[in-house]
Specification:
This protein is mostly helical. Helix content is about 40%, strand content about 10%. The protein has four helices and three strands, in the order ααβααββ. Strand 2 and strand 3 form a beta hairpin.
Length: about 90
């Protein structure tokens, strides 16, 4: 009654990714960069500390936009509330 025991059927998780290699790490780097100011689309990989992986940087930026933590304006990613002229302006 009640189906399979999830603990018994869950198995062990696979090996963990090192934090420095995780999307969470690179997302934090991009948010830190956005706190300093807007980031051009072409600068996303460097801002996300993911220079070798432009697809990852784009995916992370898209996730920030989907979570309403950032927004695009004329090809520049910025924090919500940042005006095109700069912070608070």
């Amino acid at each position: 009654s009640g189906g399979d025991d999830p603990a018994a059927s869950g198995g062990r998780p696979g090996p963990q990714v090192r934090f420095g290699d995780s999307d969470r790490f690179h997302r934090g780097r991009l948010v830190d960069a956005l706190r300093s100011g807007p980031v051009a689309r072409s600068d996303l990989p460097a801002a996300a500390a993911s220079e070798a992986d432009t697809d990852r940087a784009a995916r992370i930026a898209s996730a920030l936009v989907a979570d309403e933590l950032a927004q695009w304006h004329d090809g520049v990613l910025r924090l919500p509330g940042d005006s095109p002229a700069g912070r608070g302006g």
